[in-house]
Design brief:
The protein is an alpha/beta fold. The chain has 15 helices and 14 strands. A hairpin with a 4-residue loop joins strand 1 and strand 2. Helix 10 packs across helix 11. The protein is globular, with a radius of gyration of 21 Å. It starts with a strand and ends with a helix. The mean pLDDT is 96. It binds adenosine-5'-diphosphate. Adenosine-5'-diphosphate (ADP) binds next to helix 10 and helix 12. The site of adenosine-5'-diphosphate has 13 residues, from helix 10 and helix 12.
Length: 396
């Protein structure tokens, strides 16, 4: 069975075709500038194909993906019927979805309903779903939600200290994101530890351009750092993370800005980019800091400190942990980041193996055997997780 995994944004569409017998990625690609002009980049093994044919809408993008997959030269299938199902990444499932589901008209209505919580993402996800329904009639489609893994959080974790009526009326609460990644590395960590997933207590750190931590007790999420939106939690590449909420009003008055403008600053001009004035990319920050750039150093220090503080918080939330897992761009690649964060935990006896911490791309334990809380690096694979959920739901 081959599963097509789609991640639709408002002007982009990322895809992978995965062979579920081997978990091999047969083809991977990206449509960009949908509705503007259009660009498709497709890779299958060592073959690469780039097209700049116009992509006026998502129907055109899905058609272009189909054509690329079927192409005699760089294609990987000979008939659409070889695709057994389509798994869609859907950003917000609100309180309606605690796991992945086969898409029905009711599911689409619920995704639409959650659009007010993710106005940039859910409408684009729905457009992708509708395009596939139109162009691949009869092929089952599955929605895999970024929020689903976090739906096991208890009320005490997800409720904000706001009037309860606002939760009832607008569903203002913590939802959390990157759930597919946190779930994937939780399962992998259980495998590496040789334990059933419902017996592991871990803290997962997804540190990419956007980042979040999850506290996982007996395999289930009990807390996470992102909130109603992906702006909350740790300091990120360009997002501010947790700040005093009164700063929003203060800035509106002091700078004469609208709410939208403040939102834009907090999402796009803050985080390590805003602090350093150098870059949102940790490779640039490392380089600048080692050349003596003080603000780059402060940005990195603030990032490490915030992540370590949340680990401390979550050690309390789950009464001590078996392991801490690092994943995503920074978590998987930056040994210096992992070291700086784990140094804060040395009073607990946490100790990294420097040799293992310097390696990349491998799922493994990077702490010394005697470390009471083990530390792992586990490369995330959200696409495989989406494909596996899709396969499971379609084939029972
Ligand atoms: P997202 O999916 O949120 O865009 P990724 O998980 O791809 O993010 O992570 C991207 C980030 O990973 C980059 O911004 C960069 O800071 C970081 N990164 C990638 N490689 C390295 C590296 N070798 N050292 C430090 N940071 C790295």
């Amino acid at each position: 069975m081959k599963i097509l995994v789609l991640n639709c944004g408002s002007s982009s569409l990322k895809y992978q075709l995965i062979d579920m017998d081997t978990n091999d990625v047969m083809a991977v690609g990206l449509c960009e500038r949908i509705g503007i002009d259009g660009r498709l980049k497709h890779e299958a093994g060592d073959k690469e194909f780039i097209s700049e044919d116009p992509l006026p809408d998502h129907d055109a993008a899905v058609t272009a993906v189909m054509n690329a997959l079927l192409d005699k030269d760089h294609g990987v299938i000979s008939d659409i019927s070889e695709i057994g199902g389509v798994g869609h990444r859907v950003v917000h499932g609100g309180e309606s979805f605690a796991s992945s589901v086969i898409i029905t008209p009711e599911v689409k209505a619920a995704i639409q309903d959650c659009s007010k919580l993710a106005p940039l993402h859910n409408p684009a996800n729905l457009i992708g779903i509708n395009a596939c329904e139109k162009l691949m009639p009869g092929v089952k489609q599955v929605a895999v939600f970024d929020t689903a893994f976090h739906q096991t959080m208890p009320e005490k974790a997800y409720l904000y200290g706001l009037p309860y009526e606002l939760y009832e009326k607008h569903k203002i609460r913590k939802y959390g994101f990157h759930g597919t990644s946190h779930k994937y590395v939780t399962q992998k960590c259980a495998e590496l530890m040789g334990k059933p997933v419902d017996e592991i207590n871990i803290i997962t750190c997804h540190l990419g351009n956007g980042g979040s931590l999850a506290a996982v007790k007996n395999g289930k999420c009990v807390d996470t750092t992102m909130g109603l939106t992906p702006l909350a939690g740790i300091i990120m590449g360009t997002r501010c993370g947790d700040i005093d909420p009164a700063i929003v009003n203060f800035l509106m008055e002091a700078e004469g800005l609208s709410g939208k403008e403040v939102d834009n600053i907090m999402n796009k001009q803050s985080g390590v980019l805003g602090l350093s004035g150098v870059s949102s990319d940790f490779r640039d920050l490392d380089a600048a800091a080692s050349e003596g750039n003080k603000r780059a150093k402060i940005a990195l220090d603030a990032f490490h400190y915030r992540v370590a503080k949340f680990i401390g918080e979550y050690l309390v939330a789950i009464n001590g942990a078996d392991a801490i897992v690092f994943t995503a761009g920074i978590g998987e690649n930056s040994g210096s980041t992992r070291k700086a964060i784990c140094d804060y935990l040395s009073f607990l006896g946490v100790e990294l193996d420097p040799e293992k911490n310097s390696q990349r791309g491998k799922a493994q334990m990077i702490s010394v055997e005697s470390s009471p809380i083990k530390v792992y690096v586990i490369p995330t694979n959200e696409e495989l997780m989406i494909a596996q959920d899709t396969n499971r739901l379609i084939n029972g």
